[in-house]
Amino acid sequence: MNLQDSILKGLQDRFRFRKTKGATWLQEGKCPDCGQWEVFCAAKDPKIVKCGRENNCTYEESVRSLFPDLFEDWSKRFPQNEKNPNAAADAYLSHERGFDLQYMRRAYSQESFRDPETGHSAATIRFTVGDTWWERIIDRPGRFGKKAHFQPGGKPGGHCWIPQPVTIEDLARAEDIWITEGIFNAQALWQGADLLAVSGMSCNYWPEHFLELLKEAIRAIKRPTRPRLVFAYDPGAAGVKYARKFVDRALEEGWPATAAQVRPDGEGTVLDWNDLLLRHRDWKGEAEKAPLSSAMIEEYLWNGAVTIAKTAREKAKLIYERKMLASFDFRHGNRLWWCRVTYDEDQARNLIVDEIANCAFRILYLERDDVEDVTTYFLQIDFPNRPTVKARFSSNCIAKSSEFDNRLHAFTGMWLGNQEQLNRIKRPQISRLKEVTPVKATGYSEAHKAWLFGDVAVRGGQVVTLNSDKYFDFGKQAAKLYSEDRMLDIRYDADTLAFDWLEDLWTAYGAKGLVTLAFFTMSLFAVQIRNRDGSLAFLEITGPPGSGKTTLIVFLWKLLGRLNHEGNDPNNGSAAFLPRIMMRASNLPIGLIEGKRDDDANRNYRSYDYNDLLTLYNGRNPRGTARKTGGFEVSEPPFNGSIYLMQNERINAHEAVLERLMSMSIDKSRFSEIAGQAATRLKRWPMESLSGVIVHVTRQESDYLPFFFDRFEHHNREMGKRVKGLVNDRCILNHSQLAAAVEALRNIFPTIRPEWVEETVRLVDAMAIDRQNSCGGDHPLVARFWEQVEYLLDREKLDDHAIGKSINQHRNAGKIAIRLVEFEARCRSAGIVPPDLDKLKKVLRGSKSRKWLATDNVNNPAGQIVRCWIFENPQSPENVL
Fold first, then answer.
1. What pTM does this model have?
2. Cys staple from 695: which of 324, 492, 632, 714, with CB 3.0 to 4.6 Å?
3. Separation of alpha carbons 819 and 828, rounded Å
4. What is the pLDDT of residues 322-338, one digit of tens each?
5. 260 sits in which H/E element
6. How many CB atoms lie within 10 A of CB 62?
7. CA torsion angle for 229, 235, 236, 241 (degrees, to 10)?
């Protein structure tokens, strides 16, 4: 199957299409942006997939980004066989590089490479160079440190690779010999522009051995002159530097020499000669403007001459003679200059050249924030003797010459020109700028349907890395994180990512470990879940000190690329601190730890009020702010994360808040030597081998969400039937989401055993009924108190109440009076641990199952006066847990 057929099959599998004239209509697959049924691509040469509703939808995606495996794993798509051992290499050169193989069949072979450190292997294309070889990895080269390498121990320096069937005699007779960096660029110039080109294998290598062979060939044909050497290196600082250096060296050694560049000084482009061949092959405009036409070749030579000009005046002269401008700007030596053309009395032309900046700048792209109505520009600033700087400039700094100078001074730059000169320099740059959206929250960007994790992004199941200008290019869309700070440090390698930690997680924490893992993975899709079902519940993790809560949470954060993070204390920070913490993450969990302390009564400030969580359940803003405008505009961005609470004891809040919790207690019941060893291994597991899990999970979006929603619907119907007494709709909804997330773990982590999932779902069912009882009844401490009171009453003798020895000191059967000190003593005598009385007193007045009446003296049945806590004693107390 050729590449075009593979693409069409992939499109058919993804969208389902029928063919029409000139296009392939993707008939049954919805447009990812507008949801309509009108997505199509060109049938003869499918490169771009578009939405047919061009007036209403701008969806456009390259086939390469939709199916990167077709362009990165060539030996998988085109396996070797006896008939063609170079099948993958042929496909790569033909489809990826655009070469006609009849000109280079015997110039290469398909080989393989294995990385000794990672164990990764891949197919390569190998070319002989001198007495050594060079090879390029063609199967997912991003897995390796370098995409290409020379034979170990080989010495390629000084040799050149020559395209077939060009001979050294052909080169000796040539007028010009173009010397490129890479083999593919030399082949592109020879095939696309009919230029005699060779590859020096690197811009760092002076081609001494090649030039010696060339001299001998020139002498053999008795040619009196030498060919001109054209150093046609890649754009960028290195290519420009060595082109200038080698042109000078060639002239010193008696070779006519010049340079060629796609753009003057190698600036403003990343296109090399192979890229131009691909564009030339598909060119449909005027023939003389085709990328490798003779007219354009002349322009590239002029660009090279301008690039290697020795002085600013020499460069100005070249520019004037070609463009005949009265005044113009240009770059030389990483400074900006201005040239004015004047004429004296005898009409003699004078070029007046002045320096207008001690650096050179280029506007890379603009950042547009439509919410704040702010536009900023991102500039690259090059200095003659200092490292390059990339920085933001506000629209005001770009607009005004004085402000531009002030901003440059922050980087030791100086602007010496005037406003008109600045306008003329920036005008052609601004007209073709890429618009990049700055995203303030780390994680999911709904506008781009992508997760931005800092240096890596995930969109449509594909991993996207930052480009050279430090933003994610999604085709027509582009985005970057606004802040340079990185919340997450992610290292992802799909081939080495392992899940052997799951066994230790189960050994150490059992079903409660899987519940927490399920909540963390579900949090990575919080926006999508809320968009469909309107809410996402909070996970409450409680347990005594030393039970392992921190070890579990810190480990799970390693899976998301954050080291030594447990959560945030809501009491530590200003009023704006916690809302900012919540807004800086999207589709990520936010942890609130120990927000309610035992010593709250001794604090001189208000502790965190958990009732403030109510609005976050539905994704509403935690804290709106006024915008600095002349009107009444406010800023209320949605909350796009999830919330987990971690404390020693359950929180006490409004019933509406408690209904939105999913509570789980981690105790020491699983403690054993084996479990302790597993927990220690989790604690010591290096984050480098774990942080890729977040990328692995988010890449499964298209599989995870349909399965999750299907299982959610199942549990939402069945949970109330299978759990006796469970009737609270919100508790059912919340825990159905959690149960679905638990079952979805097997799709993400295949090594999870079915029996683990079954046990964990049973735990979720128990959590649901427990939450129903807790949110409608007493605080857990109060519930525990009444359980112990009932236990002590059951142990009493029949006549204990009559003689004043009962735990209940009240004479009236409709009331119950308890001395807390005596209650504590009775508990200890009975072998049970009483609750902390200081904590109990804070919540006991809120008892619901038995209403608190007073704390007063009571005349007990024995005629003694005792001070007790007095409650109503209903015949059928409810919600005592």
1. 0.78
2. 492
3. 15
4. 999 999 999 999 999 99
5. none
6. 16
7. 10
